[in-house]
Structure formats: structure tokens, C-alpha cells
Amino acid sequence: MPPSALAATDSPILRTQLPGPNARRIIAADERLISPSYTRSYPLVAQRGRGIVVEDVDGNEFFDFSAGIAVTSTGHCHPEVVAAIQKQAAELIHMSGTDFYYPQLTELAARLSRIAPMPGPHRVHYGNSGAEAVEAAFKLARYHTKRQHIIAFHGAFHGRTMGALSLTCSKVQQRRRFAPLVPGVVHVPYPNLYRRPAGTEPEQYARDTARYIEDWVFRTEVPPEECAAIIVEAIQGEGGYLPAPSAFLQELRRICDKHGILLIIDEVQSGMGRTGKWWAIEHSGVAPDMIAVAKGIASGLPLSVLITRAEIMDWLPGSHASTFGGNPVAIAAALATIDIIEREAMQNAKEVGDHILNRIYDWPQRLPLVGDVRGKGLMIGVEFVADKHTKAPAGEQRDHIVELAFEKGILFLGCGPNTLRICPPLIVTIPQADLALDVLEDCIKRVGSGKYHRPSWGEEVGS
Ligand SMILES: Cc1ncc(COP(=O)(O)O)c(C=O)c1O
User: Fold this and answer.
1) What is the DSSP string of 92-139?
2) Torsion over CA: 59, 65, 68, 71 (sign)
3) In this predicted structure, what is the pLDDT of residue 460?
4) Distance between CA 273 and CA 348 in Å, rounded?
5) Which residue's C-alpha comes closest to atom 4 of ligand 1?
6) Rounded distance between C-alpha atoms, residue 143 and residue 311, angstroms
7) Is the pLDDT score of 2 beyond 60?
8) Which architecture characterizes domain 95-326 according to CATH?
9) Structure pTM?
10) Least buried of 46, 87, 129, 214, by fewest C-beta within 10 Å?
11) Are 66 and 76 in contact (CB under 8 A)?
12) pLDDT of residue 416
């Protein structure tokens, strides 16, 4: 399928050493002026984007297999999204849906209601970021149930505002020196099929991991009648692109139903067609009570949505709102994005994703550094290990592979301690994916052979 928005470029083009002179100048200013809390893996300074191509400030053209952290679902600057933004920006940029009405709020809500992964009727609450959607879910769960406790998972990433951070349990630096966090959160193990105890059968292991909540937490720590919600990513994103087994999610649903607990699915990274279905949770057949959506929904404009079964969203005026949430321009981008995903990009994500997985499924057998490959659609993780037997994480080698791929013109990002994520825009073609995989395989071999020497910027920029 030739996606309509694609740039003509059929391979990365590197015109300067990396980083080029303009990039160096901007990075120097960035180091003086911008918060040092950001984590940059390599010195890409973007100027413009089109389809899967990002051009930097020195005229180098990269293939973007990170999609700006799984955000530019329709590719960079898809003409239909750009046109929708321009049209809306010329009519009404802002009015604040918290205090006034405008038609875009209900238009997108109705559209989302048609594709939500649970039966309607639904209600939506608008925000600007993934963390805000999660904050809304956290607060609404407490408000609706009048219960305090929330269960989240080891390895989870739900954002960095205080409430969302309290649910996040991904990297200790994200929490260091911010305590005390919001009380009432309990973290429990998330299933990792690759690292499950030897001899355990996958489905039983997945069920037992969920049952820890009933068998242990509800007996020792949290009375189930005081538990408001369980929040889970259907595919852990920042934690390492780890799909939750269906049996695990089904067991969570059973536990929630039994104890009157709400099941919140965080689809901020996995949603909006990325896995070949609208929502990753759909692969399991589980219907959640609430779903948090952001990243890919508006192709790069800031927008997030909390969608719930209508009767859950029963808070009174003043309970929760955001000045910018549901901005008309962002909603216009979202409506155009949904059109494109529905028409071509979701099916393309499935086809190209299957192609990628078929091409790399034997990497763990063929490449000494690769321990596991996994994923759905265009949300694919490649996990690196120093030793296949002990599965000792090869985090440093993962970082080197990401750096080397950048030097060869492909943008990847890491996730978890030792995994690389493959999450290009959903309009990527099979030839583009093949080219990126050729480069990636070559990088893995070079780093594996010990012949790779970090570039000088590697020490400066590394996360
Ligand atoms: C699953 C998940 N939830 C929430 C967030 C937070 O989103 P944001 O950075 O937009 O606040 C992220 C960001 O990576 C995420 O992957």
C-alpha cells in the first residue's frame, strides 16, 4: 500500500558529520538554557519532518523509527493533518472547554465513543498530555468509588506529574528526591514472559501474576473494598515494550468485577491503531472501565483524553478541568488523524508490523546479543542480553546500538533497561522498514563484535 503522505526520500541522506555545525551550536545553547532533566540519547536537532523522514538543521535526512516517542502516528506533517490545523487555526484557536462550549469537543467525543474498547454510552474528559489523562483517571477512580487505594505495576510508566508519578514505577531516577508521593498506591509484579521462572507454563504464569493481587495484597495490605482501581498498560511501553498476556488481563478483569474495582487501561503509548487495532487491550477481549489516550491521537499536537463508561464520570462541576484541554486546533488534528488511521494507517501498522516480526523473529537464534523480540503491530521491542543463558541485561550495548543507528541515519529509542523500541509512524512502508532493519542488524553485529567505538558526543549526550 503506498501511503499518500510519504516523502520521496527512499533512504537516509547524511551530508555532514554528526552532529553538524548548526546542530552543535543549538546543542550548546540548549545545554545553557534548557532543563538538564531531559534525557537525550543522541544529538539530533530537528528542522522539519515529512512522512517518516526528519531533516536536521544541517540538512541531514533521517528515517524516524521513534515517531517522536510513538506520537507522529500519521507521519510527520501529514498534509491532511496540516490542512486541518491551518483551517482550524484561522477560525478559532482557543476558547477553553472548561468554561465555554464549542462543537469540536463533542465531535471528537462522539468519534471516540464509536471506537472505544468498552460498550457505551461513554463520557470523555480532555487534557493535554498522557500524564494528565492518568491524573484524571486516578482522581475520578477515587471520586467515583469513594475508595482510596490504586494498584499499579512494577515497570509501569504513567507520567511524571505527582499523581501519575506515584503510579509510575519504571526508573528510580524518575522518583528520586520527589517523595512523599501520593499515598495509597501499591505496586505489584507485571508479567514478563521472557523472564518468567524456568519451567513455568506461560498462561499459568500470567494468571498467577495477576492472582498475587488477591492472594497476597488483598490478604495482607489493602482490603479489596478499599481499592478504587487497578491501572495497567496493555503493552508496557517505557518498561520495555512488554505485551501483557491476554490471560493476565482477563484475570485482572475478573478480580475487578469480583471486588467492585475499576480497571483503567493506559493506552497512551499503545493506542490509536499502533498495534493494528485501535487499542492494544482489544487483542485480549477485555473491556476496561476507563482508558487513557494521548501521544498518537493528534499526530503531534498536545491532546489527551480519558474515556470512561458514562456512569463512572459522575463528578460534579469544579471537580476537575484544564484550561487548554481539548483545544480546538488539537481536536482538528485528532479528527484528521483518526480519518487517516481508519482509512489506511491501522491496516498498514498490522501489515508492516507482521512483516517486521517475521523478519526478526529468528534474531534471538542468529544474533548473540538479542535475547528476545516481541510486540504487536508497530510496537515492537528488541531486548539485548550479554548472555543468553543468564539473560544478563546488555543495557550499555543497547545504548551503543541506538547511537550507531543514528550515525547511519535511523532514529530509534531505547525503553526499559536493555530494550530497543521499533515504533515508526503507522504509514511506514515495507521497503522503508526493510532498510531500517538492515541497518539495525548491521549495528547489532558491529556492537556485538566489540568493534564499535563510541563517538565523542556519546559521552556528552548519553542518558
Ligand atoms: C503508557 C504511558 N502513559 C503515560 C505517559 C505520559 O505521557 P506524557 O509524557 O504525555 O505525560 C507515557 C509517556 O511515555 C506513557 O508511555
Assistant:
1) -S---TTTS--HHHHHHHHHHHHH-SS-S-EEEEEESSHHHHHHHHHH
2) positive
3) 59
4) 10
5) 158
6) 12
7) no
8) 3-Layer(aba) Sandwich (3.40)
9) 0.96
10) 87
11) no
12) 97
DSSP secondary structure letter of residue 153: E
Q: Is 239 in the pocket of ligand 1 (CB under 6 A)?
A: no
Query: 3-70+344-462 has which CATH code?
Result: 3.90.1150.10
* Ligand 1 centroid from CA 268, angstroms: 6
Q: Is 12 in the pocket of ligand 1 (CB under 6 A)?
A: no
State the closest ligand 1 atom to the C-alpha of 129, by its place in the atom list counted from 1.
10
Nearest CA to ligand 1 atom 8: 130
- Domain locations along the chain: 3-70+344-462, 95-326
Distance 131 CA to ligand 1 centre (A): 6
Q: What's the 158 CA to ligand 1 centre distance in angstroms?
A: 5
Rounded to 5°, angle at Cα 52 from 54 and 28: 20
Beta-bridge partner residues of 413? 421
Q: In this structure, what DSSP letter does residue 317 have?
A: T
Single-letter amino acid code for the residue at 428: V
Reading the block at residue 217, the C-alpha cell is: 495484597
Kindly calculate the radius of gyration of the chain based on its CA atoms and give it in whole angstroms. Answer: 22
| pLDDT tens-digit series, residues 397-423 | 999 999 999 999 999 999 999 999 999
